[in-house]
């Protein structure tokens, strides 16, 4: 399977990695991966993450058994990142168990971990672990999820007993469960299931339970290089839909309303076979209306600056993009210089935000230093970046929020991880001289990779307006 996945990935990336599609006539739809092709990629990503990433993350979190419990249509947020495309929701009750194993290749798949040393702190000490790590993965119940898990066969009403026997056989030192006050992504264990879980573990193992917050967050936050490769393709599709929406194929000035464009974008996503995680938006900035154009669904006019906030879900990944467009007046070939200066100011704020956000640093540190430098340069900044990937608003450290420009409590102090993905979302307010120095909000959002070597845009960022004739 691993060799097949590697070959499939190379072939698929070759087919989708060509020049970005320009319009429907250029055959953009033909480059979209079928669900069958996506299924191969997604399962391959999951297997490789289990084999190469999860052992390290469990060791770093000090957890040698991770138990994730979901119920049908009430999934733990982590579950989706571990499930194949053929799974729409967890089946009945799903109990996934991950066991960190250490040692040489002579260990069998069912080897039992050594019993804990009574004189040792109940944590996995990474300094004393041998370098060879692997994780055995189990599903207690009836479903193996396309072979990703070894089934511990139990009927629905016997799952807790089956879990108890598995735990006793593995004798873990530290058991991680998904409970968290701070991160919603790491708080997927419901109150009822936690009660049942603790009863099943009993007095022998319940004291070994701790929150798996760090493990759950880092599992969702850190990505593989192969996932970054395919995410570029996903982003090309998102950018293509925005280009189509901000064109005369969709917009007729003086006729088309903002809601017309919104629903066109949503329908286009559906027709291409993708999902969405929020409803698109189109807003208008217009000369003479500093407080916004009145009306819920204004007609788009010449001379308007348009803004979209748009995202898709494709190959299991979410995107989040905000771009700007300008509707040309008769005789114009470009946007007014004042609008271009506002876009340039927002680009500068992007630069500063990424300059001060570094691996190992925190979102609050990046927010404070970027805002300070931006204001020193005369910008009027608002910064509200977030992690992205398996969820639109992903797990990890935010850089501000719209209502937390002085720092995000607790979550904003979480350190940035290498190989994480982030939406650089912000706005700069700029006075447009052609609009009688009217203050205009220039909001941009572009997704970027944070590698150990620094930042890299997933694709190019917007530095010029989409122009609508």
Which SSEs are present, and which pair or pack?
Elements: H1 2-16, H2 35-61, E1 65-71, E2 93-102, E3 133-141, E4 150-153, H3 159-170, E5 175-177, H4 191-205, E6 209-211, H5 213-221, H6 225-245, H7 258-271, E7 281-285, E8 305-310, E9 313-314, E10 317-318, E11 321-327, H8 337-356, H9 363-376, E12 381-383, E13 386-387, E14 420-432, E15 438-451, E16 454-457, E17 466-468
Parallel strand pairs: 1-5, 3-4, 5-6, 11-17
Antiparallel strand pairs: 1-2, 2-3, 7-8, 8-11, 9-10, 12-14, 13-14, 14-15, 15-16
Short description:
With 469 residues, this protein is α+β, with helices and mostly antiparallel strands. The chain is built from 9 helices and 17 strands.
Query: What's the count of strands?
Result: 17
Assign an overall shape: elongated
The fraction of residues in strands falls at 15-25%
Strand order of the largest sheet: 4-3-2-1-5-6
Please bin the fraction of helical residues: 25-40%
Q: Helical stretch count?
A: 9
Radius of gyration: 25 Å
Distance between the termini: 51 Å
Largest sheet: 6 strands, mixed
Describe the structure.
The protein is of the alpha+beta class and 469 residues long. It is built from 9 helices and 17 strands. The protein has a 6-stranded mixed β-sheet. Strands 12, 13, 14, 15 and 16 form a 5-stranded antiparallel β-sheet that branches. Helix 3 crosses helix 4 and helix 8 (337-356) crosses helix 9.
């Amino acid at each position: 399977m691993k060799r097949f996945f590697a070959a499939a990935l190379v072939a698929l990336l070759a087919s989708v990695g060509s020049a970005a599609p320009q319009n429907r006539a250029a055959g953009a739809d033909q480059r979209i991966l079928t669900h069958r092709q996506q299924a191969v990629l997604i399962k391959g990503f999951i297997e490789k993450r289990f084999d190469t990433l999860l052992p390290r993350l469990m060791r770093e979190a000090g957890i040698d058994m991770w138990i994730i419990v979901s119920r049908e249509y009430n999934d733990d947020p982590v579950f989706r990142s571990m499930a194949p495309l053929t799974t729409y929701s967890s089946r009945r009750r799903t109990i996934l168990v991950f066991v960190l194993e250490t040692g040489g290749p002579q260990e069998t798949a069912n080897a039992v971990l050594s019993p804990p040393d009574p004189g040792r702190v109940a944590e996995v000490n990474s300094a004393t672990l041998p370098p060879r790590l692997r994780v055995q993965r189990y599903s207690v119940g009836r479903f193996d999820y396309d072979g990703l898990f070894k089934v511990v066969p139990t009927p629905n009403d016997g799952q807790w007993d089956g879990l108890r026997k598995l735990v006793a056989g593995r004798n873990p030192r530290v058991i991680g469960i998904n409970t968290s006050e701070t991160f919603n992504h790491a708080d997927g264990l419901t109150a009822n299931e936690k009660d049942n879980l603790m009863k099943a573990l009993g007095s022998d193992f319940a004291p070994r339970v701790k929150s798996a917050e760090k493990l759950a967050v880092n599992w969702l936050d850190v990505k593989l290089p192969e996932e970054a490769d395919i995410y570029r393709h996903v982003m090309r599709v998102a950018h293509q839909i925005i280009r189509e929406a901000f064109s005369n194929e969709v917009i007729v000035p003086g006729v088309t309303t903002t809601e017309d464009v919104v629903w066109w974008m949503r329908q286009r996503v559906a027709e291409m076979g993708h999902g969405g995680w929020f409803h698109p938006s189109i807003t208008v900035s217009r000369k003479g209306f500093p407080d916004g154009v009145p009306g819920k669904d204004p007609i788009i006019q010449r001379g308007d600056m348009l803004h979209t906030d748009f995202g898709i879900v494709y190959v299991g990944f979410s995107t989040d993009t905000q771009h700007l467009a300008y509707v040309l007046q008769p005789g114009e070939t470009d946007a007014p210089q004042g609008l271009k200066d506002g876009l340039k100011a927002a680009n500068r704020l992007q630069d500063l935000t990424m300059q001060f956000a570094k691996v190992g640093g925190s979102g609050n540190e990046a927010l404070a230093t970027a805002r300070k430098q931006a204001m020193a340069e005369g910008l009027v900044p608002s910064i509200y970046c977030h992690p992205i990937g398996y969820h639109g608003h992903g797990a990890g450290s935010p850089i501000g929020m719209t209502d937390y420009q002085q720092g995000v409590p607790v979550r904003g102090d979480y350190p940035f991880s290498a190989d994480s993905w982030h939406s650089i979302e912000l706005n700069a307010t700029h006075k447009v001289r052609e609009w009688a120095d009217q203050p205009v909000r220039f909001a941009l959002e572009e997704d970027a990779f944070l590698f150990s070597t620094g930042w890299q845009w997933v694709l190019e960022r917007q530095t010029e307006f989409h122009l609508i004739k």
